[in-house]
Amino acid sequence: MGDVLIGRGDAIPPAEVVDVELYHPHSWITKYVFSQDAKVIALQYSLTALAIGLVALVLSWLMRLQLGFPGVFSFIDPSQYLQYITMHGMIMVIYLLTALFLGGFGNYLIPLMVGARDMVFPYVNMLSYWVYLLAVLVLVASFFVPGGPTGAGWTLYPPQAILPGTPGHEWGIILMLVSLIIFIIGFTMGGLNYVVTVLQARTRGMTLMRMPLTVWGIFTATVLALLAFPALFVACVMMLFDRVLGTSFFIPALVSMGEQLKYGGGSPILFQHLFWFFGHPEVYIVALPAFGIVSDLIATHARRNIFGYRMMVWAIVAIGALSFVVWAHHMYVSGMNPWFGFFFATTTLVIAVPTAIKVYNWVLTLWRGDIHLTVPMLFALAFIVTFVNGGLTGLFLGNVVVDVPLSDTMFVVAHFHMVMGVAPILVIFGAIYHWYPKITGRMWNEALAKFHFWITFLGAYAIFFPMHYLGLLGMPRRYHDIGQTSFIPESAHTLNAFISIVALIVGVAQMVFLFNMFWSLRHGRKADGNPWRATTLEWQTPETPPGHGNWGKELPVVYRWAYDYNVPGADQDFIPQNQPPTPRPA
Amino acid sequence: MAEVALRKTQDAAARPRHWRVVASDWASDQTAFKNVSWGKAMMWIFLLSDTFVFSIFLLSYMTVRMSTTQTWPNPSQVFALHIGGQDIPLILIAIMTFVLITSSGTMAMAVNYGYRRDRKKTAVLMLVTAALGATFVGMQAFEWTKLIMEGVRPWGNPWGAPQFGSSFFMITGFHGTHVTFGVIFLLIIARKVWRGDFDTGRAGFFTSRRGRYEIVEIMGLYWHFVDLVWVFIFAFFYLW
Fold this sequence. Notes:
The complex is a heterodimer. Chain A is mainly alpha-helical. Helix content of chain A is 61%, strand content 1%. In chain A, a hairpin with a 2-residue loop joins β1 (255-256) and β2. By secondary structure, chain B is mainly alpha-helical. Helices cover 70% and strands 3% of the residues of chain B. The interface between A and B is large, with 55 and 50 residues.
């Protein structure tokens, strides 16, 4: 790799940015509760996201109990089933995945990986977490209001989302919209920090093209979020007005229960456009950090430089840009002009090009690599397989004529769970196992971790593979009970029961993960600063876990890209980014 | 700037060509935007995000204006004031726009004096800007009151499409909120300038960081943005 030295062996460049003084906490409260340290904020974000994610996990068990054994659990009535679906989807997508990848991993990894002492505006960063927590609390509150949480489906399509007949139309929908608005405000505070830190606060020698792909993924995803969340924000504000003030932004003239409603003249399709203008980039807000992280996991644990780094970066940027022009492929059955369908099908399939570049590059990185089947690597490999699976079914759904019969069936459920549910969550697990030693200074229990991996990986396939088949049979999604339907054979019901049992087993296996994380905190083997012998800066901190300000007295200086593994002629099989080049013989 | 650029590209033989120059400049060491402070970069990116918010508000208003089946009230008549025995269309909006654009001028002067370290003039000009902003919000409150007295509500109005009132209150309300926040921050920063915080290096109350006169310019970016948004609202809502 030519890009090793700064200016071909010249002196390192002078610092362009003055080293700002950090806020120094005076008490336990300012150190661990109202902390301005990105690492503490990252843990707060992560733990909150995992906690609310557990709620969503339990909701999925309840849904599976109903689907697998209809009629057995009488406490799950149709309204509740819809509420479980809605809250499960919204929590998983927004409050777990987005918050964990950007608020959690973003906060922890960005300053460490680019060699900064903290985020650029730590105080705003702290506010971001507390606003996020408020959003979560408002969301949780909706479980306890009269009528319960909204059951409109996570897409919240009007008019049904706010009209009588939909569970939670009294209070649930209001709290959901308010919670989303608060979340977006909080996210914006954090997101601005992540972007500016990456752009303007890198250490000496850290050019953009030397950044680890993790930072590239999180950075691009944050830019997407800053541009996509406004659509959701505006849509939520308008729907809130429709619900509370009786405006008609989204509601056309309607007759309900024989009565003409007061609404009239609004455009329900407008909401769908706004929602998916946010919703499709959201897929990549979740996927791009996963792409980035998995690239680093693969390079580190296969001891090889990432194949085609430059193309990997451009692919991330290209996917990010393209994600803004594909949104209406979620609306093929909404009654759009067919020409739009044609346009959006084309742009959707174009995304396959940069995505395929990434997959090929991951595979080529592994090719003849020195693959260590550590737990993070297992999760990374599982991600590649799962992502390819989910991506291939995306080709079915991206084409209008194939999508129309498959739309609103379990096939769609299987597709998006594979591609943006299971795949990113596999990366989250891999990433947690990978960085756990740095965050806590301890190793986790390997046996438990491997057990957790195999149950989760195989279980996910046992759950979601059969769903494709159910979808092809025509089994609709979001149905509380499909009853006896002539085109759905008896075997489909057996399959449903099988899926439910596996889902419960996989769910319980996650408790093993949680146990491992907390048990190892005290009882894990002590980890040294760089247990994976990785090149990136976060493993080169003077202390493990990294202290306040990350770097001690001197900021690190970067001399090379992030992927110097197995360099011919080097002493070790990796060269850290901050290791100066050996002087060349005269 | 020129020195920085020279230092970065001294290795002319290896210098990439054409659009690659742009990419490599952006990707260069430490900072993507040379000599741009963190605060200024953050404000610009925030404004980009906020641009999306206002664009989507305006696009949504245009969509419901098309989707509604009732006639759209004529803004020239709705926003006319009865002065001196005749209806003058849009007179209040014209004055509001004039006030807001003027405030952009005083803001720009404040930025100039800020960089000259002229505390008093900077603070006074910021206070004038805040006063003009407050005047704008006050006139908006007057306009809202007048329309509400005439029977305009978010859910309906006497002249036609109910989406008229919905969009009006939502968009001008959201913009007015922006102006109000701007006024509040103008007052806070004007106080800091007046007190000389940026000369004495006094630490911020919340952030415990020392501020700089550049904050006046960053405040100015926000203020000009809010004015610019108003121009679009004026064009798309009042003139159309």
